[in-house]
UniProtKB/TrEMBL annotation:
Highest taxon above the source species: Eukaryota
GO molecular function: FAD binding; oxidoreductase activity
Species for this entry: Glonium stellatum
SUPFAM superfamilies xrefs: FAD-binding/transporter-associated domain-like
Needed cofactors: FAD
Residue ranges constituting the FAD-binding PCMH-type domain according to the UniProt record: 1-140
PROSITE patterns named among the record's database cross-references: FAD_PCMH
Taxonomy of the source species: Eukaryota, Fungi, Dikarya, Ascomycota, Pezizomycotina
Protein name: FAD-binding domain-containing protein
Length: 140
């Protein structure tokens, strides 16, 4: 079944098309930024926008590398392979060493560089072909 995951958006998003057999998966219910009880780990939900992530991190005196448009889905921008706000330091996805997703076969998985190397590299820029990312954990 063809699908399109949606959260946030900007002008280029209006060019996506989906015929009547497809579904739109709207991630607004996954719009979260959560911290572990010891505040050493942050989890960015699949529906979180950049305007959710930056203030949540700043409130805890932390920094998260993101894109610059507040209306864009944080993980979509990161997984799209784009440069981070400090381009000279690499891709934004480099700062997210743990990614939770539902794979194309319907199985939930947590993917890291140490668990499933092929899927790990596939998610870095080609994510929509391999499943739906539900959350990710940035470097501490």
């Amino acid at each position: 079944v063809p699908y399109l995951v949606q959260n946030g958006g900007n002008d280029w998003g209006t060019t996506f098309t989906l015929d009547k057999s497809g579904i739109v998966i709207h991630f607004d219910q996954l719009r979260s930024v959560d911290f572990s009880s010891d505040r050493t780990q942050m989890t960015v939900g699949g529906g979180a926008l950049i305007c959710d992530v930056v203030p949540a991190a700043a409130a805890r005196n932390d920094l998260v590398l993101t894109r610059t448009c507040n209306c864009v889905g944080a993980l979509g921008a990161i997984l799209g392979g784009g440069p981070n706000r400090m381009d000279q330091y690499g891709l934004a996805v480099d700062d997210f060493p743990s990614i939770n997703l539902v794979k194309a076969d319907g199985q939930a998985a947590t993917v890291t560089a140490l668990s499933g190397l092929e899927l790990w590299w596939a998610l870095r820029g080609a994510e929509p072909s391999f499943g739906v990312v539900t959350s990710a954990v940035p470097k501490a």
